[in-house]
């Protein structure tokens, strides 16, 4: 009788034993070489495309831009200076409309499963890259819809007259007018250089669509595979012209859920985690195996009024609303103290920052007086549109709107909070259906123009990105003038005036400049946040404890 | 047996007819544009629309539309996913093996653990061992799987750090895709880190399998225990005992064979529950299978994907159900009459 029970128990005990052995063995992982020097970056979303020209989303840029591609010129992340990239040298003509670049002659495009370059990088590649954006006859212009969002926002097609290869290593950009932000635009992550030879090969093989799906660049990593919503795998480019790429393999693990991303960091399934939630920073920082990095980013969160709609067309009303808001409470409750209060739209790290602007006042009494003066002694009813997504510059617009609602009630203004799904939200904003909106802006390059023109110019109003629906010829004149000169002193003076003018007019109320965070396992060194754009993982290295 | 088979197949044909009608009507019942729902294309211009209307025979009567739908399904044209704009059948082919892999290991585990435990519990139903097995089975039966999965992750992944919390394999291990079944692919792959990869994949597999196996295991324990107790009361067992066979012999030769027969049928019945639970498990453990994909599709209002997912999963469940029924009938002549 005892025998059968024993023989039945045997598989149970043995499987329990196997499980126990598995569990215990988990303590000493034996990693192969590709995994040992490989890095895992947990990303919050899938890339939309593998061509930076076609996208604006920070998630995509972080994954593709700095890893796969190079630009003609780069920014030194420490001081914002423009430094050589694929171009070693450049000259600007006296009238500022002709830029001549001398190119490196020792750069190769990636060799991958689908492409093997037969020549080095040269001027044809530059012409190919930039003509794709502007030339409707370019064979790839309409690939991916023919929309180049960043370049359209800076009016690139109207600015660049011609891109010309003088010889193999010299390329000339001719502009319609001088534009002092031109070089800065070339440094952005969107101005990545593509391979003309690869383009030819795809055309010959009649699969032009591959150009944005199977990327070929010159960057420190080359593309290996992409599994949608699962991962992006890159290998080291051993022939990288700057040399010194550390990880043999770089994997972007796609984990949209915030809590899950944190869990993966704690279980060491991820080495680097993008955008940890600000509310969880303390918890993360308390762990010995994880460090939190922060950097002041070039961004601003603001409250924009639809200045064409009464009563927001009255300056006194806008001033009153500005005074009614308790920013200190907002900074504490929404940004958890991890942001700098904003005095104007330009962050203090910009060279054109106006430190003479007065600190915003919080005074419900004065606000009431101003409202009475404007003819609204009993206040009015308005909508606050709160964006439905979490962004660096505004981690929780809904909460912010609720705080404001309470503040506004103090001065007799009844505020309704409105929110839509993100796509229709932006669409409705573009049609100026809102009274006021809580939104923000993150800069793509260090040039101060990047804050003024896309946000508050008349051109931006026509394209729908001017959330304040504000068009002031005087302001437009100041910021256009600032583009025509390359003299930084003169430009600075003009931008100071522009900021002063915005402070008087209050088409929008700047609330905060937020810091950007990322959490990194302490066993990884050599990663820092680039304040001007996507993360670069070239120097990331795993150090044995 | 042949008659039985024919009868079964005939019945199955009706089930599939009903299923195809349901799937077909979904494109019409979902909100939005019918041409978009059918093709999965997001942007359709006017000339393309005309082409699609004639392709889907929308200008013909409903019967012809249905026949066209069946032809398309048979030819593998299942439309595109709204989210990725890729052919749906292609996506499903990549995802289905992951779900099948997880589900079959869980089912296997539930047999390996459930059947012996059930027998042990039936052997001495009033002893401490028997009662505690029944108690554990009861608890396992009532555990909400979502909570149980998170609990295991919290304990084994976050607190102890022994096991990974998500995925099928460490992302740094590159495994060439051939069959889609991870362990098989690893064994097949020409890589020099095969044993490490296999070990890593097993680690990833452990928690999801345990979580998914919990419910079927407890069902199996209770089922086997009841069946055994039932059989033990039968006269032929008493006769066998009276003839002088010892308990072990009776158990092997007469008890088990009769008690385990209904278990075969149980596989089929468990399978649909298993697939439902697999969806939850996939969500908890970020397992890239068809369940997680289907739930994501529901969130994204990805109608063509919902339709295709429903079709695949239902077909799978019905087929497995039928196969186990037939298998059961094959082993048990009594069932063929019913």
Gross morphology of chain B is: globular
Count, helices of chain B: 13
Mean pLDDT of chain A: 85
Q: Flag low-confidence runs of chain A.
A: 1-9, 23-29
Largest sheet of chain B: none
| Total number of beta strands of chain B | 0
Which residues of chain B form runs of ≥5 with pLDDT under 50? Answer: none
Distance between the termini of chain B: 12 Å
Shape verdict of chain A: globular
Report, as a whole number of angstroms, the end-to-end distance of chain A: 56 Å
Largest sheet of chain A: 12 strands, mixed
- What's the pLDDT, averaged over the residues of chain B? 85
Q: What percentage of amino acids of chain B are in beta strands?
A: under 5%
Percent of residues in helices of chain A comes to 25-40%
What's the oligomerization state? heterodimer
Largest interface: A-B, 42 and 42 residues
Describe this structure as you would to a colleague.
The complex is a heterodimer of chains A (545) and B (338). With 545 residues, chain A is an alpha+beta fold. Chain A has helices at 2-25, 33-36, 58-68, 123-134, 149-153, 156-159, 182-187, 196-204, 258-266, 281-285, 315-324, 327-333, 364-374, 397-410, 422-430, 449-456, 458-463, 473-484, 488-505; strands at 38-43, 73-75, 82-84, 87-92, 98-103, 160-167, 170-175, 221-227, 231-236, 249-254, 272-274, 290-296, 299-305, 339-341, 381-386, 414-418, 436-442, 508-521, 524-525, 541-542. Chain B is 75% helix and 0% strand. Chain B is globular. The A-B interface holds A 1, 3-5, 8-9, 11-12, 15, 19, 22-23, 25-27, 29-32, 34-35, 38, 40, 224-225, 227-231, 233, 249, 251, 253, 255, 260, 263-264, 266-269 and B 84, 86, 112-113, 116-117, 119-120, 123, 153, 156-158, 161-167, 170-174, 192-193, 196-197, 199-200, 202-203, 206, 246-248, 251-252, 286, 288, 296.
């Amino acid at each position: 009788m005892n025998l059968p029970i024993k023989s039945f128990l045997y598989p149970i005990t043995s499987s329990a034993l196997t499980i126990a052995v598995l569990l215990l063995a988990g303590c000493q992982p034996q990693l192969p070489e590709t995994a040992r020097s490989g890095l895992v970056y947990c990303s919050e979303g899938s890339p939309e495309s593998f061509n930076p020209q076609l996208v604006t989303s920070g998630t995509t840029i972080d994954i593709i831009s700095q890893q796969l591609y190079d630009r003609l010129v780069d920014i030194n992340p420490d001081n914002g200076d423009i430094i050589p990239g694929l171009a070693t040298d450049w000259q600007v003509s006296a009238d500022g409309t002709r830029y001549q670049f001398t190119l490196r002659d020792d750069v190769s495009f990636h060799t991958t499963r689908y492409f093997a370059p037969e020549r080095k990088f040269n001027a044809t590649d530059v012409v190919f890259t930039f003509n794709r954006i502007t030339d409707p006859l370019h064979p790839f212009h309409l690939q991916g819809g023919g929309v180049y969002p960043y370049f359209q926002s800076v009016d690139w097609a109207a600015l660049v007259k011609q891109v010309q290869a003088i010889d193999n290593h010299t390329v000339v950009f001719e502009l319609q007018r001088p534009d002092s932000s031109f070089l800065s635009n070339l440094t952005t992550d969107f101005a990545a250089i593509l391979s003309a030879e690869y383009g030819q090969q795809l055309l010959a093989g009649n699969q032009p669509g591959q150009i944005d799906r199977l990327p070929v660049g010159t960057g420190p990593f080359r593309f290996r595979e992409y599994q949608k919503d699962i991962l992006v795998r890159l290998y080291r480019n051993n022939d990288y012209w700057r040399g010194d790429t550390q990880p043999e393999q770089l994997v972007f693990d796609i984990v949209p859920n915030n809590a899950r991303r944190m869990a993966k960091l704690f279980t060491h399934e991820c080495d680097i985690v993008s955008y940890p939630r600000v509310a969880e920073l303390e918890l993360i920082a308390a762990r010995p195996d994880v460090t939190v990095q922060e950097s002041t980013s070039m961004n601003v969160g603001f409250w924009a009024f639809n200045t064409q709609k009464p009563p927001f067309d009255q300056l006194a009303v806008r001033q009153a609303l500005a005074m009614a808001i308790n920013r200190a409470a907002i900074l504490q409750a929404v940004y958890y103290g991890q942001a700098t209060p904003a005095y104007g739209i330009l962050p203090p790290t910009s060279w054109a920052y106006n430190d003479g602007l007065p600190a915003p006042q919080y005074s419900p009494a004065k606000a009431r007086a101003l409202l009475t003066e404007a003819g609204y002694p009993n206040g009015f009813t308005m909508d606050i549109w709160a964006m439905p997504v979490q962004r660096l510059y505004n981690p929780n617009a809904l909460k912010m709107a609720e705080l404001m609602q309470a503040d506004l009630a103090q001065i007799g203004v009844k505020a309704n909070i409105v929110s839509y799904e993100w796509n229709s939200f932006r669409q409705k904003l573009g049609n100026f259906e809102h009274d006021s909106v809580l939104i923000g802006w993150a800069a793509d390059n260090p040039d101060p123009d990047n804050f003024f023109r896309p946000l508050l110019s008349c051109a931006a109003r026509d394209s729908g990105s001017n959330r304040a629906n504000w068009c002031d010829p005087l302001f437009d004149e100041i910021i256009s003038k600032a583009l025509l000169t390359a003299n930084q002193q003169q430009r600075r003076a003009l931008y100071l005036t522009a900021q002063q003018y915005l402070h008087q007019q209050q088409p929008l109320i700047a609330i905060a400049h937020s810091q950007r965070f990322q959490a990194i396992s302490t066993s990884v060194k050599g990663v820092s946040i680039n304040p001007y754009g996507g993360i670069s993982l070239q120097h990331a290295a795993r150090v044995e404890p | 047996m042949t008659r039985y088979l024919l009868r079964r197949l005939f019945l199955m044909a009706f089930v599939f007819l009903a299923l195809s009608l349901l799937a077909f009507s979904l494109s019409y019942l979902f909100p939005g544009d019918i041409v978009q729902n059918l093709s999965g294309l997001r942007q359709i211009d006017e000339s393309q629309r005309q082409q699609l209307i004639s392709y889907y025979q929308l200008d013909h009567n409903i019967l012809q539309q249905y026949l066209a739908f069946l032809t398309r399904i048979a030819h593998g044209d299942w439309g595109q996913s709204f989210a990725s704009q890729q052919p749906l059948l292609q996506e499903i082919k990549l995802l289905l093996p992951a779900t099948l892999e997880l589900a079959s290991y869980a089912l296997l585990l539930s047999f390996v653990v459930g059947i012996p435990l059930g027998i042990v519990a039936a052997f001495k139903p009033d002893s401490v061992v028997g009662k505690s097995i029944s108690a554990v089975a009861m608890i396992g039966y009532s555990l909400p799987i979502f909570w149980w999965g998170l609990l295991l992750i919290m304990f084994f992944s976050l607190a102890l750090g022994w096991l990974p919390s998500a995925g099928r394999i460490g992302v740094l291990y590159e495994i060439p895709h051939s069959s889609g079944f991870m362990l098989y692919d690893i064994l097949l792959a020409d890589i020099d880190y095969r044993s490490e990869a296999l070990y890593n994949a097993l680690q990833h597999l452990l928690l999801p399998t345990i979580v998914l196996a919990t419910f079927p295991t407890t069902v199996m324990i209770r089922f086997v225990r009841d069946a055994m107790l039932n059989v033990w009361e039968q006269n032929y067992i008493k006769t066998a005992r009276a003839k002088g066979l010892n308990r072990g012999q009776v158990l092997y030769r007469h008890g088990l064979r009769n008690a385990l027969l209904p278990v075969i049928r149980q596989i089929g019945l468990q399978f649909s529950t298993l697939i439902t639970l697999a969806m939850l498990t996939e969500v908890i453990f970020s397992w890239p299978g068809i369940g997680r994909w289907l739930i994501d599709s529901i969130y994204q209002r990805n109608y063509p994907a919902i339709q295709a997912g429903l079709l695949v999963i239902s077909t799978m469940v019905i087929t497995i159900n039928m196969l186990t029924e037939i298998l059961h009938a094959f082993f048990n002549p009594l069932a063929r009459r019913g």
